[in-house]
Amino acid sequence: MVSFLVMNYFVYILRSKKDGSLYAGYTTNIKKRLLRHNGGKVFSTRNKIPLELMYFETHPTLTKALSRERYLKSSKAKNLKKSLKVKI
Questions:
Q1: Among 6, 21, 45, 66, which residue has the fewest nearby CB atoms (within 10 Å)?
Q2: CB count in 10 Å sphere of residue 47
Q3: pLDDT band at residue 9 using 50, 70 and 90 as cut-offs
Q4: What sign results for the dihedral spanned by CA atoms 21, 75, 79, 71?
Q5: pLDDT digits (tens, 9 = 90+) for 31-70
Q6: Average pLDDT of the segment spanning 7-16
C-alpha cells in the first residue's frame, strides 16, 4: 500500500497591532508560525509585536505559494493590503 503525504502551503498576511504595518509570508503550519512571530523569533517582525493574522490562503505546491507571497509583497497587491489595513 502506498500512502501520499498531502502538504498544503499557507500564504498569510499579518498586521502589527503596534504600528499597523503588514507582513506577508508562507508556511506549512500557520499556527506554529504565528506563535514564532509573536514570540519574537522572526527577525523581520520582532519589533512589530503583537501581530494578528489578517488573511491567509492555501496552495498545493511550494512554487505556487512562493509566487503568491512574492505578489503580496509587491506594490501590485496594494488594493488587498489597503482593505486589510485598519486603523489601530
A1: 6
A2: 11
A3: very high
A4: negative
A5: 999 999 999 999 999 999 999 999 999 999 999 999 999 9
A6: 94
**DSSP H/E element including 53:** strand 51-59
**pTM score, whole prediction:** 0.86
Q: Please give the span between the terminal C-alpha atoms of the chain, in angstroms, as a whole number.
A: 53
- Please answer whether residues 47 and 56 qualify as being in contact, where contact means their C-beta atoms are separated by less than 8 angstroms: no
Phi, psi torsion values for 19, nearest 5 degrees: -135, 0
Facing residues of 12 across strands?
Answer: 25, 56
- Which residue type is seen at 66? L
Q: Largest alpha-carbon pair distance within the chain?
A: 54
Which stretches of 1-88 are DSSP H helices? Answer: 30-38, 62-72, 78-84
Among all chains, which residue has been given the C-alpha cell 511550494? 62
Whether omega for the bond prior to residue 50 falls within 30 degrees of 0, making it cis, is: yes
